[in-house]
Amino acid sequence: MSKENNIDRLFREGLSDFSATPPTHVWDAINAEIKSNRKQKMVLLLWKGSAAAAFIGVIILAGILLHTSNTESPKYLTNLQPDSGLIISENENKQTNETGATSISNTISTNKDVEQKESLYVHELQNQKENSNINKEIKTVAFKNSEEYTNSNLLSAQNNTQIKKEVLLKAISNKDVITHTETIDPSTVFFLQNSDMDNKRMADMIFGDSEDEEEIKKELFAAISVGGQIAPSYSYRDGNNNSAKNESGITKLTGGVNVNFKTSKRFRIETGLLYAQVGQKFSNSSYTPSNSVAFGLLEDNIQPAPSANSYQNSMGNIVPKSSSSGKMFDAAPSTDFEASRTISNMAFFRNSEVEIQQELEYIEIPFILKYDIINKGIALSVNGGVSTNVLVGNNAYNISNNTRNKIGMIEGINAVSYSASFGLGLRTPINSSFDFNVEPRFKYFINSITSSSEYEYKPYSLGLLIGVNYKF
Amino acid sequence: MKNLEEIIKRCQKNNGKAQKQLYDCFSPWLYGVCLQYCKDKTEAEDHLQESFIKIFTNIKKYRFEGSFEGWMRRIVVNTIIETFRKKNPVYFVDSIEDIAKDAPEISEHTETINPKELLTFVEELPPKYKLVFNLYALEGYSHQEISDILGISIGTSKSNLSRARKILKDRLSIKKNDSIIA
Fold first, then answer.
1. Hey, what domains does chain A have and what are their CATH numbers?
2. Predicted pLDDT at B79
3. ipTM of the assembly?
C-alpha cells in the first residue's frame, strides 16, 4: 500500500485504540464454557487413567490365573480323604482289599464333561474307571461326607482289619475335589471401582475457587513429603516345584514410612522403610510325606511320625527353629508325636483341620519412581521401581483348631532379596499440610528367595497401600 | 504490560484467576474490534465470547514470539471471518469494472474525528463492504490475502473496497458540511 488512502488511514488511526466495555454476561458465559471444557477434559483424563489402571489390573489378574493354572497340579485329586482326616494310601489297596478294609484305587476325571455320580459305593468305584473319561490316577481319595463313616468304623477296621465295604460314600463331586483355590484379596481390587465417584464433587475439588487453586498447587508440588502407609496385602508365589500341593496365598498387613522427593513437576522418587510379610499356607493333605503316607491307617501301615523333611511344599523344608528342640510341634504337648502311633493321637490329627502357614517377614527399602498423569488438585500417578528386602523373620506355624503354634522355620531363605513393583497412586490433599494416598501396588520378587537349588520360590503380592503424607 | 507474560503463563496452566485478569485487560479493546466488524452489539458480544474461548483454549500454543495483542486480534478477526463465511457463502459478487470509477482519492478529510463516529460510519457499511474495508484498511491485508481468506476474486475485493471508501467518503462529506453549517 504505497499510496495509502486517506480514508483508510483516518479510520485505522481513529479506531486503533477504540475500546468499549463489554457487558458482564459475556465473561460469565466465557467462564462457564472454559470450566465446562476443563471438566470434560479432566473427566476424559480420569477415564483414560481408569482404563489404563483397569488394563493393568486385568493383566495382573490374568497373569495370576494363568500362572496358577500352570503351576498347580492338574485338576485331579491327589488326595481324597474323609473329613475325619483319614488318609488312605494307594499303596494300601492290595492290602486293604485282601483284608476287606475300605480301599480306593480309582481314577476319576475332573473333566467337567464327565458326569458326576451323586453317590458312589466303594465297591462300585472300580467300575467307574471304565465309564469315565479317565485322565489321571487318583492316589488317595478324600470324601467330604463322613456321616456314615464314623471313627468307630475306622477303629474297628484298624483293629480287626475289617472295614465294611458297604460304606456309603456320597457326593463325590467337583465340590469335593480338593483343588487349590486362590482367593483374591479385596485389597487387590483397584481403586478404579471408585472411578464412578461423583464427578461433580471431584471437579469441584479440582476446579475450586481460583484463589485456592494456586495454593493447592503449591502444596501439591511440595519438594519433600513424609508419611506412613498401611496395606492389606495378598501374597503368593511363583515357583517351579511340582511337589507343592494344596498351597494357597495368605493375606497379611504391610506398612511403614516413606519419604517422597519431588524431582520435577510430575516426577517423584519414593523411598522409606516398609515392613512386609509374604508367605503361603498349605493344608494337611499336602504335607504328607513324599511316599504319600502320612499316618498309617492300619496297624501294619503305621508310618513313622512326620519328620522335619516331610513337610513338602514349594517354599522349602521346614526345620525346627531350635536345634535343641528337634520337634516340629514345639508348642504341642511333647507326647503328641510320641503317641501319634496310637489310635487316639491319630484321631487328633484326623479330626483337626491342620494347616501349615509359612511366613517370611521383610524390611523393604523401596526405590520407586512416580509419574503424575494428572496433578490438578487430585493427582493420579503411575509408579514402578525396585526394592531391597532384608529378611527379619522366618517362621512356620501349625494352624489347628484355630490355634497357631510355631513349629519351625523355612530352610535356606536368603537374607536379602530383591523385588520389583509397579502400581497406581491416587493422591488428594486433606488440608494445607497433609495428603491422602491410595496406591494399589503389585510386587514381585525378581530372584528366588531360597538359596536351595531344589526350590525356586518367587513371592508376589498385591496390596492396597493407604496412607497420609505430611508436606514440608 | 509488566505482568503480561506471567499472566499468559498462568493462563497456559488453565489458571482461572489469570484468565479473568487477561479478559479484564483486553476485552474492551477486542470488543471494540468486534464492534468494527459487526452490525450490532449483540453480534459483537457473541464474537467476543467465542474469540476468548478460542484464546484460552489455544493459548498454550502461543510461544511468546511476536505481539500477543496481534495474536489475539488475529483470533478475533478470524473468528469473525469464519462466521461471516458460514452465513454468507456466496456474497461477494460485485464486478471488477466498478473499480476505476469508484476508486476515491480523498485528501481533504484529515481532521480528527471522534472514534465513536468513525465506528458508526463503519457499522453502517453493508457487511460485504465492511469486511473487505476492515481487512484491507485496518488489518493491513492485501487484496490477494483477502481473496484467499474470503474465497473471492481479487477484483471483487478491490471493488468492495472501493465501494466502501466511497460510502465512507460520502458520510464524511456530509458530516463536514453539517459542521460548516453548524
1. 90-170 (no CATH), 182-284+355-471 (2.40.160.20)
2. 93
3. 0.81
- Indicate the DSSP class of residue A139: S
Q: Name residues whose C-beta falls within 8 Å of residue B66's C-beta, 6 or more positions apart in sequence.
A: none
Q: Specify the 3-state DSSP secondary structure of A158.
A: helix
A321 touching B (Cβ < 8 Å): no
| Higher per-residue confidence, A320 vs B91 | A320
B113 contacts on A by Cβ (under 8 Å): 10, 14
CB contact under 8 A, B16 and A31: yes
B15: nearest CB among A30, A33, A210: A210
Cell numbers at B74, concatenated: 488475529
Distance from CA of A237 to the nearest CA of B (A): 46
On the question of pLDDT at B81 being above 80, the answer is yes
Confirm if B10 and B56 have CB atoms less than 8 A apart.
Answer: no
Q: Are B80 and B59 in contact (CB under 8 A)?
A: no
Question: Chain B interface, mutation test: which of A1, A3, A5, most B Cβ atoms within 10 Å?
Answer: A5
d(CA A422, CA A440): 9
- Could you tell me the domains of chain B? 4-87 (1.10.1740.10), 98-181 (1.10.10.10)
- B28 closest CB neighbour out of A8, A16, A19: A19
* Mean pLDDT, residues A65-79: 50
Classify residue A213 as exposed, middle or buried by CB count within 10 Å of its CB (0-12, 13-18, 19+).
Answer: buried
Q: Is the pLDDT of residue A185 over 90?
A: no
Q: What is the pLDDT of residues A368-378, one digit of tens each?
A: 999 988 887 78
